[in-house]
Design brief:
The protein is mostly helical. Helix content is 62%, strand content 9%. The protein has a single domain, classed as Rossmann fold (3-Layer(aba) Sandwich), CATH 3.40.50. The chain starts with a helix and ends with a helix.
Length: 85
């Protein structure tokens, strides 16, 4: 992904949803790319348009992803320890 952002030859970055590219700061990235005559094309038009609602949704999704990621890591570590014993 970083390669796409660094490569000036890439004029359009196509994503299905905004949060597939990044959770926070999408508008800033979009503005930075526009300054370089580049753009991000989001396929899903049914996204939230209210900034506050969208940002709250992004925070909640991020928190749940972190929570379940930690839980998953703990389960993998527990299984690894059980396999060793």
């Amino acid at each position: 992904m970083i390669g796409l952002l660094r490569d000036p030859k890439v004029g359009v970055i196509l994503v299905e949803h905004r949060d597939r590219l990044m959770r926070f700061g999408f508008d800033h990235l979009e503005a930075a790319l526009a300054a370089q005559s580049r753009s991000v094309l989001v396929v899903d038009p049914d996204e939230r348009t209210d900034d506050i609602v969208r940002e709250l949704h992004e925070v909640i999704v991020s928190m749940y992803a972190r929570l379940y990621g930690k839980r998953s890591a703990q389960n993998r570590a527990k299984k690894a320890l059980e396999a060793i014993a």
